[in-house]
Amino acid sequence: MTVGAIGARTTAFKTVRIDEGALQKNGITMETYDLSDIFCRMDYVDEKNKKYKAKKEILKNYSNWSGVPDEAFVKIVKLGVVLDGLIKENKLDAIALRCWMEMQQQLGISPCVVLSLLNNEFIPAACEVDVGNAVAMSALCQASGEVSACLDWNNNYGEQENKCILFHCGPVPQAMMKAKGKITDHAILANAIGAGRGFGPNQGRIKAGPFTFSSMLTADGKLKFYVGEGQFTDDPIQEEFFGCAGVAEIQKLQDVLLYVGNAGHRHHVSVTPSRVSAPLAEALTKYLGFEVTRPQRRNDGIT
User: Fold this and answer.
1) Residue 303 maps to a domain
2) Does the pTM exceed 0.70?
3) Which string of DSSP letters, residue by residue, matches 186-247?
């Protein structure tokens, strides 16, 4: 497997650090690319080019762009063309992209909808240079034959111990959404860089149905996964909630979260809309020799 890490890890996100040597020892090559090269390539994308025109039509039909400035749309299309080219040139199986704050500061866009489209096309694309979850997303896709998404373990859902909101700014594939999304400004980053400089999040809601979740980290030269299952529900989320989110019901959720935190896993979790935790865990352990924990099966979720 070859994963593209596009951009340096965001300084604040030490949670997504990865051991490149451990990956290589286990047959996963990590190739790195500088954002400056991506931005430079975008400058050379010809708007009359067939690839640009094709990507423009795909993106235009993929989501609702009403209210998005033309300049932002053009840059998002160019970013999509460049990432497609990079993936093809280097035969990348998955990518993890640095998505803030250079994108917003220098280009005035967010790449969320481009990642959403890649995920919808079965090219796992993780946010925030989270290579570990790009690997987990790929494993989930292969186990289920379905798309995957990288989300945040983010919010409680009222007082219900087995429910939480899983969310991200907008890289969720259309195949996992209730309806076509709407492109918005980045409401969170607007606080830091100002309004109107972060168009690109694909806002919407995740449709109800079963899912398998997983994540991966490297420690002591080893790849360590956790795997479990849950159900996205039809429970409401207030309309003003930013990004693409869904209410997830997960048995023994508090044990799962205690395990995730105490074991040093990331704030991200990857999901695929299918129940495949048993074959996924079997493949990762029996055939690949990785360490896998199924925290829903433990008495206390920790030991």
Assistant:
1) no
2) yes
3) -TTTHHHH-TTS-B--EEEEBPSEEEEEEEEEEETTEEEEEEEEEEE------TT--SEEEE
